[in-house]
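Lab meeting, item 3. Inverse folding demo.
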């Protein structure tokens, strides 16, 4: 705020701070996606971007296809705007089951498809590039827009940043949504959307409901990226996540009931846990809550799939003896349900 000129106190009109949009475009260029700053519109976080895409593409009562399980807030958004969801199962290593999606397209009148190709929350699976290309081409052929959530794309645990599915988009059919929420700080509330052939409609709708974002925050972020701090931060963050993950998986292998299966995420910060079928995680949550331990349960992440025995843990929290005791408590409570 101190370094801003007096004119900087005015409204921040769409599409948002130009230097920040330039930096976001440059950031994507490094993983093979070419976007101009004019193709990027700043929003109030990734969920705001996803909401905008859905509102422009659909009407209440329309049907969309979503991968499942998927981030709980996305499901709440879908229900909130009165859409019907066809859930497409995920493969822990391949991402959305494209054969199942193809069948759903033949069976239902799908208005849009929502996917998280890079490190789905909660499984952390990474869709191979060949599948991303097939997904984009399959939907383009049917003129069904793809809404891509790339919020975890920078949190890769491998050597290279995976390409967004939009990299393979030749018709403007892919709407790319993301933010700094997972990669930098949730309370910044700065995201973006690149709407392809739907971009002008998205911009017009957004302008009707909100004039613009926070100019000081956007300018500060632009400087942060331009000076290279974001890249350095991401390198440290990815190293940190890679160091935390083994602590959690080893503790769960030690404490959780025999037969428990745990996802091996390629990125992101979440683990998907499948307990033996007899275990009810809603009951487990209530028992753990009574002892001040929080467990996110599988039913929050799906509308229809039978995931009563599933749960989610975030390995982004620093490993401590307190967390070790918490996982042991969860394991002990789960084992009691098997007796």
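The presenter then showed the designed sequence:
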């Amino acid at each position: 705020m101190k370094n801003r000129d007096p004119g900087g106190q005015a409204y921040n009109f769409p599409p948002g701070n130009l230097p920040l949009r330039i930096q976001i475009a440059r950031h994507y260029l490094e993983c093979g996606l070419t976007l101009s700053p004019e193709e990027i519109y700043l929003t109030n976080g990734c969920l705001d971007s996803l909401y905008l895409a859905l509102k422009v593409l659909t009407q209440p009562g329309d049907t969309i296809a979503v991968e499942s399980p998927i981030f709980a807030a996305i499901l709440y958004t879908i229900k909130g705007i009165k859409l019907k969801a066809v859930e497409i199962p995920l493969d822990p290593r391949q991402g959305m089951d494209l054969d199942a999606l193809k069948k759903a397209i033949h069976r239902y009148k799908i208005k849009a498809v929502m996917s998280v190709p890079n490190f789905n929350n909660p499984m952390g699976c990474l869709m191979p590039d060949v599948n991303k290309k097939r997904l984009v081409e399959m939907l383009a052929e049917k003129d069904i827009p793809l809404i891509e959530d790339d919020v975890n794309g920078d949190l890769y645990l491998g050597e290279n940043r995976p390409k967004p599915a939009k990299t393979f988009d030749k018709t403007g059919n892919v709407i790319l949504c993301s933010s700094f929420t997972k990669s930098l700080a949730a309370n910044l509330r700065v995201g973006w959307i690149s709407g392809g052939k739907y971009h002008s409609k998205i911009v017009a709708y957004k302008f009707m409901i909100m004039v613009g974002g926070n100019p000081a925050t956007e300018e500060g972020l632009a400087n942060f990226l331009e000076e290279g701090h974001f890249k350095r931060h991401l390198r440290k963050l990815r190293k940190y996540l890679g160091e935390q993950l083994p602590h959690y998986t080893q503790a769960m292998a030690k404490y959780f009931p025999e037969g428990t299966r745990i996802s091996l995420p390629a990125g992101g910060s979440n683990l998907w846990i499948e307990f033996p079928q007899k275990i009810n995680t809603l009951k487990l949550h209530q028992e753990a809550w009574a002892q001040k331990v929080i467990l996110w349960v599988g039913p929050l992440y799906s509308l229809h799939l039978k995931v009563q025995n599933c749960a989610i843990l975030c390995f982004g929290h620093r490993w401590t003896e307190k967390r070790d005791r918490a996982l042991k408590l969860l394991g002990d409570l789960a084992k009691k349900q098997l007796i």
